[in-house]
Write a structure and sequence with these properties.
Length: about 160
Amino acid sequence: MTSALIPPVIPRRSPPGNWPRGRPGAAGPLPLPASPGQAPALGADVVYGLGRIDASGRVADRTVTCALGWHGGDRLTLTASAGVVTARRDPDGLAILPPRHYIVIPATLRYRCGLLPGDPVLVAARPAEDTLTAYSLAVVDQALAALIPFPAREGGQP
C-alpha cells in the first residue's frame, strides 16, 4: 500500500519592496509590561534558604546558620509541630551544631512532623530571636493558599 506524497507548505517570500525599512538587527528597547502593583519588600529581620532533609535528618543551609552567628559545638533545643521544626541556641540543649553548620533533626521529631528523607524545606533564620525554623513545603503551600489566591489562567480557569 502506497500513499501519495503531501507537498510541504512553504510560505511565499514577500517581494523586497515590502520588507521593513531600517538596519537588520537594529531594534529599540522593548517596553516593560505594566506592573500590577508594588511587591512587598522582604523583611530585613529574616534570612531564608532552601534545604532538603537527607536520610540522617540533616538539613544544610550555611547562609542561614551563618546569619545567626552560630558555630560548630553550639548547643540547640529543637521543638516541633506539624511540618515545622524550630531550633534555638540553648546552653542546656541536647542537640549540638556540627562544625559543618547543618541541623540534624532527630528521627522522633521528623516522624512527629511528617518529614521524610528527600523532603524540601524552607529554612528561616531570625537573628533577633536566635532561632532557625524549617518549614515543610506542604506547610508553606497551605499558608500561601490561605493568604494569596493563585492567579486564574487565561480564560478564567484556575
